[in-house]
Design a protein that fits this description.
The complex is a heterodimer of chains A (263) and B (245).
Chain A (H helix, E strand, L loop, with lengths): L5 E5 L12 H8 L7 E5 L7 H11 L5 E4 L13 H6 L3 E4 L4 H11 L1 H10 L3 E5 L1 H4 L2 E6 L6 E4 L4 E6 L8 H10 L6 E4 L3 E6 L2 E7 L6 E6 L5 E6 L2 E2 L5 H4 L3 H15 L1
Chain B lengths: L5 E5 L12 H9 L6 E5 L7 H11 L5 E4 L16 H6 L3 E4 L4 H10 L2 H10 L3 E5 L1 H4 L2 E6 L6 E4 L4 E6 L6 H12 L5 E4 L3 E6 L2 E7 L6 E7 L2 E7 L2 E2 L3 H5 L1
Parallel strand pairs in B: 1-5, 2-3, 2-4, 4-5, 6-8, 8-9, 11-14
Antiparallel strand pairs in B: 1-10, 6-7, 9-12, 10-11, 12-13
Classes of the chains: A alpha/beta (263), B alpha/beta (245).
């Protein structure tokens, strides 16, 4: 089966962590092959926290994209239709941070684990930070229960991924020990602001929103040592605010179009 | 002193649904037998909604309880938040209060964190368990949820070998669906109104209590192919004098 999907795994950053720096979020929008991509935000890992949903609207509401939010805790209230169609009709699915353990448990209850894999294989871009980044890999290091510990993800990417390497220094030693002890496969640890872009299961590019953010590849050698290779990301720059806002006439046109489509 | 396992399963009510009526929450506190009980709130079924946690503290902190809450979605810090070992914390409580919301998300999250086993252990050691709606359904072997629209069957943690349907008087369609499920083979159990609570000691229903004079509960079972619904008398926890006043 061809793995054709695109995944952007952020070590941290984006609108929930650095709302004043939209470089990574703008990069996410360029990954879809549509001028105004449909972007669905999935805040499950935070328990669908109102603050995250509000931050999503604040960050993407005035950008050239069509936004929606899938709140599993409010299913049935939002009249959003069947989950499979909602996910499959997106160009980008953006997954927020929080507890990876709780998020994956809830996804499995509702079959979202399979639906997200389907969407990925069908070409929907999957993007996310923290729990929303580690979940695509075979495993990562979660702090869901307080102390950092290795935890399994969905395994779309046959590697491991550890987040907040610079922002939360308790994770990296746990991550490296887990790779050394083969509890996690080889993979990457990424700083806040650093992001890995995968096409299929191949790492294509490393980007960042912060000049000093890094990612490091961590591999267990034949004789049980750790081999660390630092990757220097391409620094992204955000568009000046004036260039990115959608003008009033475009917003009016969009409203007219969505009214026509719904009618 | 050995404490008996107790579950107070509210059909609806308590601080989140009837904020001006403390009768059911007072009853839950009284079951601990402590003058200053340790009470931990589990807001998991709501996704740890901030407003829900705030309302818990507003109601319980003023009643002389040692209050805390356990978040399974965020690493909350500060007063009340459980920062250490959640398992040890839960076992050290006198009362664990489980809030409402989505029972499917609640069960999945509890199991993922291993709390299904911890809660069972806490219950068997005599920590009083209280919950409403999703927080009531989850203790039973089977339950009816309508949180996401059409009523559906859910398998619960199974501490109580019955089925349960909450908000029994609130939504007529639930009653119909519940009876249909029992007819189709769901195990027999209880329908419980808003403002009423089933008090189990061990696995036996010991009392039905209520915060509203007309709220109650009934037993629903299949007998010779027919659904039999028998009303259970409930004890109103308030005084009738207050009602008259």
């Amino acid at each position: 089966m061809p793995a054709a999907g695109t995944i952007l795994a952020m070590g941290g950053g984006g609108f929930t962590m650095e709302p004043e720096n939209p470089a990574l979020d703008e990069f996410v929008l360029t990954l879809a092959e549509r001028r105004e991509p449909r972007v669905l935000f999935l805040p499950t890992a935070s328990g669908d926290a109102a603050a995250q949903v509000g931050a999503f609207h604040a960050a993407f509401g005035d950008r050239p994209c069509v936004t929606s939010v899938l709140s599993i805790f409010r299913l049935g209230e939002d009249g959003g239709g069947p989950l499979r169609e909602r996910l499959a009709s997106q160009d980008i699915i953006y997954v927020g941070g929080g507890s990876m353990r709780s998020m994956l448990a809830i996804w499995r209850e509702y079959g979202l684990d399979h639906l997200l894999e389907e969407a990925w294989r069908a070409g929907v871009v999957l993007a996310g930070l923290s729990a929303g980044a580690m979940c695509w890999f075979r495993g990562g290091v979660t702090c869901s229960t307080g102390c950092p510990e290795p935890a399994a993800g969905l395994g779309l990417l046959p590697y491991s991924f550890s987040v907040h390497a610079d922002g939360d220094r308790s994770r990296l030693p746990v991550y490296e020990a887990a790779v050394r002890e083969r509890r996690l496969p080889s993979g990457w640890a990424a700083d806040d602001g650093a992001a890995l872009l995968f096409r299929g299961t191949r790492l294509e590019r490393v980007v960042s929103s912060r000049p000093r953010a890094r990612a490091v590849h961590v591999r267990r050698t034949e004789d049980g040592d750790l081999e660390r290779t630092e990757l220097v990301p391409d620094l992204l720059t955000a568009l000046p605010r004036l260039q990115r806002a959608v003008t009033g006439d475009v917003l009016e046109f969009r409203r007219l179009r969505s009214w026509r489509e719904s009618g | 002193m050995e404490r008996l396992p107790q579950i107070l399963a509210l059909g609806g009510g308590g601080f989140s649904m009837e904020p001006d009526n403390p009768l059911l929450d007072d009853y839950a506190l009284s079951l601990t037998g402590r003058s200053r009980p340790r009470v931990c709130f589990l807001p998991t079924a709501s996704g740890d909604a901030d407003h829900y946690i705030v309302r818990f503290y507003r109601n319980f902190a003023t009643r002389g309880a040692d209050v805390s809450h356990l978040s399974l979605f965020r690493r909350d810090k500060g007063p009340g938040a459980v920062e250490g070992d959640p398992h040890a914390h839960l076992l050290a409580q006198d009362l664990i209060y489980v809030g409402g919301g989505s029972v499917i998300s609640l069960l999945g999250t509890l199991r993922a964190h291993g709390l299904d086993l911890v809660l069972e252990e806490a219950w068997s050691r005599g920590v009083v368990i209280c919950g409403l709606s999703a927080g009531s359904l989850c203790w039973f072997e089977e339950a009816v949820t309508a949180f996401h629209g059409a009523p559906q069957r859910v398998r619960g943690l199974g501490l109580l070998p019955f089925s349960n349907c909450v908000h029994y008087d609130g939504e007529p369609s639930r009653r119909e669906e519940y009876r249909a499920f029992v007819r189709q083979g769901m195990r027999s159990g209880y329908g419980c109104d808003d403002g009423a609570a089933l008090h189990f000691i061990g696995r036996e229903l010991a009392h039905v209590v209520s915060s509203r004079p007309r709220a109650g509960a009934c037993r629903v079972e299949l007998s010779a192919g027919e659904i039999v619904e028998s009303s259970l008398g409930s004890r109103f926890l308030g005084s009738t004098l207050e009602l008259a006043a």
